[in-house]
Design brief:
2 copies of one chain form a homodimer. Helix content of chain A is about 70%, strand content about 0%. Chain A has about 210 residues and is mostly helical.
């Protein structure tokens, strides 16, 4: 039985993927990975969910691993694009940290099933795919490191250790995918709450943006 | 090939479990769940790792699920006991929050493989076992809620929303199990760093304990 939040999530995902059969296979794979786990899912199960034969699936994706790779790749690219858009044009470091955490948290709540499959199944990727995803993940780390460093340099904020603060900011949002369920108050409220907590993590004690 | 951190972790786990064969099965199950995932592990694989037949395994554990349940149950009980010991005798709310986060983080770093198997495989438990673990998890939530509420009442700290602050404190430590690897600086340093960040999350801006 699909949970209430399945529909809104599916609606927004992979709208640019063509043909439609390829998109449906991605949605079916995500649903099965999120429900049963990657290892307990077979390509036959995924194909059956969209009324296709296993051979039909293989005309779009060469393997179950390629489906996981496509899900992980598009998930990371989607989040990265949202974060870059959210930070675009901001020059205040404290405001940028808030916007970063707000965007990350909202994404992980809205797409918690995609995020879960992405965060916790990466070890099942082939080595070259894993390395490609890891270099994308490295860009998140560079972004957050740049934000925290800018905060400290501005004199508005202070941290004991930049690396620990960066990891704490990432954990605050990423862990949402582990515990979030749609009975929780809206992703928007959570994002706003995390923006304030993020400011505290970097040592800006006011609850208000600095400008 | 076992990684460098396997040995120290194995040494400290389930020392009270008798007979030795039952303990070895738990360690082998944990190793396989952490490496391959629960669904990709068979009881035959676990038995083989300790030079036992599947029938030999079944004389100790009725199923693969019972092994996961025992791992999850003992993991939660161990962490709960460490937290209760760490908080015992403390009456300063801000100091208690720091001690809570420090203990949680150290445990999740030291036992990151156990924590990972415990946090991310719970959906594979039978319903009655899942409910039992869930009520144990509820005790962590009660502890952290009590700590944050006491901080706010003391007037030393302030939060916008108690529930969001509680979840942020839990995420800070639990997410360690996802990213921690033994190439990272020691679990002790990380615990001390998280103690300071926890104090900031509850709105006490000083880096020093309040007494």
């Amino acid at each position: 039985v699909p949970s209430k939040d399945d529909a809104p999530e599916a609606e927004g995902l992979w709208t640019a993927i063509a043909p439609e059969a390829a998109r449906k296979l991605l949605l079916a794979a995500l649903d099965s990975f999120a429900t049963h786990g990657y290892n307990a899912t077979t390509t036959r199960m995924i194909a059956q969910r969209v009324g296709m034969s296993p051979a039909g699936l293989y005309s779009h994706y060469s393997s179950k691993e390629e489906l996981l790779y496509t899900i992980a790749l598009t998930g990371h690219e989607m989040l990265l694009a949202e974060i870059e858009a959210a930070l675009d044009g901001l020059d205040d470091p404290a405001e940028s940290v808030q916007r970063f955490s707000e965007t990350m948290t909202r994404w992980h709540a809205r797409h918690h099933r995609l995020a879960r499959a992405t965060q916790y199944e990466l070890r099942n990727l082939a080595r070259d795919h894993f390395e490609e995803i890891r270099s994308l993940r490295h860009r998140f780390e560079e972004i957050v490191h740049g934000l925290v460093t800018a905060c400290v340099r501005s004199g508005q904020c202070s941290v004991d250790d930049v690396g620990t603060a960066c990891l704490a900011l990432l954990s605050l949002s990423i862990d949402v995918a582990r515990w979030y369920d749609p009975t929780h108050p809206g992703a928007g409220d959570l994002g706003a709450g995390h923006a304030k907590i993020a400011l505290r993590i970097v040592g800006c004690c006011s609850n208000e943006p600095s400008r």
